[in-house]
Design goal:
alpha/beta; TIM Barrel; DNA polymerase, domain 1; 3 domains; 13 helices; binds zinc ion
C-alpha cells in the first residue's frame, strides 16, 4: 500500500470540504503524521498523535473520513492492557493511542478486571472511535497458562463481574500470604510497600519483585523470580484461576463471547492445538486470536486455519502493555499488524449465534 501521502491527503481534504466539514489544518497534518508513522517503523515513536494532549470527536471523525476517502481499509486492535491491569497507560490513553494508529475500533482487555471499561468507553465516544469492551481471563490448563479474551461485556455484566470480584479477593489473600512467606524468609517487604508499588490496583508478583529490588534483597527482577517468586520457589503461592469450561460458560452467561488468546502459549503441537481448539469450541468458544502481533505471518495463517476448521471466528490484536512491552504498539504491533474491521463483524456474529 505504498502511496503518496500528500496527494492522498489533498484528495481527502477536498472531499472533506465538499462534505462541508470544518477542517483545520493542524488536524489534517496530525492525521497525515499518523499515517507516515504507520508505514515507517523507525519513526513510530514520533507520532504527533502520541503526544496529543487531547483528541476531540472532530479529530476522530475527520481522521476516519480521511481514511475512507483514500480508500484505506479500516484496522482495529482487539487486545490491549491499561494501568487497570499490567499496562503502563491509563484506559483513556489506550483509546487515544488506538485512534492515533488509525484504528476504527479498539478493545480494552485488562487481566481479570473490568474497571477500565467505563473510562475507555467515555473516551472512545468523545473522539469517535468504537470501544469493544472486554477482559482477559487467566485459566488453568494442563499445559500451562491459558488466557481467554472475553468481548462485549461491561463492568456490570453478570455473573462475570461478581466472579471477578471474588477472584480478586482470593488474589488479595494470596498476595498477603506471599508477603508473609517472604518476610519469614527474612526478606525486606511489607504489605504497605507492595500496595504503594502497585498503585493500589492489580497487585501481583512483578510488584513484589520491584519492592525486593528496591530494598536491595535482589539485584534484578529476574533474580527475584528465580529465587523467590516463580512457581516452586519458596515465596510462591498458587493463584486461583478459572477452568476453561467455567470461563467460557461465564462469558456466555454474561452476554459475551470467549476467544482463545495467543494460542501458541499453550505449547502444543499443531495437531494438539487443533484438538484443543475443537474441544474448546464444543464448550462454546467463539474465536481464536490468530493475528497476534508476536506471531509470524505463517503462524497467523496456520492459526486462522485452525480456527476455521473448528468453525470459529478469527481475531487479532497487539497485546499492548505500554512501556512494559517496548516496541509493541497499538494497532501496529511490531509494525506488521493489520487486523481488519471485518474480523470484529464476524466476532459479533458469533455472539448473536451464541458461540460454538
Ligand atoms: Zn495473555
Ligand atoms: Zn493480554
Amino acid at each position: 500500500m505504498a502511496r503518496g501521502v500528500h496527494t492522498e491527503d489533498a484528495a481527502g481534504l477536498a472531499g472533506l470540504v465538499v462534505l462541508g466539514l470544518q477542517v483545520s489544518w493542524h488536524v489534517v497534518r496530525r492525521a497525515a503524521s499518523s499515517r507516515v508513522v504507520r508505514r515507517n517503523r523507525a519513526a513510530r515513536h514520533v507520532s504527533m498523535f502520541a503526544h496529543a494532549q487531547a483528541l476531540t470527536r472532530e479529530d476522530g471523525v475527520i481522521y476516519m473520513l480521511g481514511r475512507r476517502l483514500r480508500g484505506e481499509a479500516s484496522v482495529i486492535d482487539l487486545h490491549t492492557h491499561s494501568t487497570v491491569s499490567d499496562g503502563t497507560e491509563p484506559p483513556a490513553r489506550v483509546v487515544d493511542l488506538a485512534a492515533a494508529a488509525g484504528c476504527t475500533a479498539v478493545a480494552l482487555t485488562d487481566h481479570d478486571r473490568l474497571d477500565g471499561l467505563e473510562e475507555a468507553a467515555d473516551r472512545a465516544q468523545t473522539i469517535g472511535i468504537r470501544l469493544v469492551p472486554g477482559c482477559e481471563l487467566s485459566c488453568v490448563s494442563a499445559t500451562g497458562g491459558m488466557h481467554l479474551l472475553v468481548y462485549f461485556v461491561s463492568a456490570t455484566s453478570q455473573p462475570l463481574a461478581d466472579s471477578l470480584t471474588r477472584l480478586q479477593r482470593a488474589r488479595d489473600a494470596r498476595n498477603a500470604v506471599m508477603v508473609e512467606r517472604l518476610r519469614q524468609l527474612g526478606l525486606p517487604i511489607t504489605a504497605e510497600e507492595l500496595h504503594a508499588e502497585a498503585g493500589g490496583i492489580g497487585v501481583g508478583r512483578p510488584h513484589m519483585a520491584a519492592v525486593l529490588l528496591r530494598n536491595g534483597a535482589v539485584t534484578s527482577i529476574e533474580e527475584a523470580f528465580d529465587r523467590y517468586l516463580a512457581q516452586g520457589r519458596p515465596g510462591y503461592v498458587d493463584k486461583e484461576r478459572l477452568t476453561p469450561p467455567d470461563a467460557i460458560a461465564l462469558a456466555r452467561a454474561s452476554g459475551g463471547v470467549a476467544v482463545l488468546a495467543h494460542p501458541l502459549t499453550l505449547g502444543l503441537s499443531w495437531g494438539g492445538l487443533d484438538v484443543a481448539v475443537r474441544e474448546l469450541a464444543a464448550l462454546g468458544l467463539g474465536g481464536v486470536e490468530a493475528v497476534y502481533a508476536r506471531y509470524s505471518l505463517e503462524e497467523r495463517s496456520r492459526l486462522a486455519a485452525v480456527a476455521s476448521s473448528a468453525g470459529l471466528a478469527t481475531t487479532g490484536g497487539s497485546d499492548f502493555h505500554g512501556a512494559y512491552k517496548p516496541g509493541l504498539e497499538i494497532g501496529l504491533g511490531y509494525g506488521d499488524l493489520a487486523v481488519g474491521e471485518e474480523l470484529l463483524l464476524a466476532l459479533e456474529d458469533r455472539r448473536t449465534r451464541g458461540g460454538g
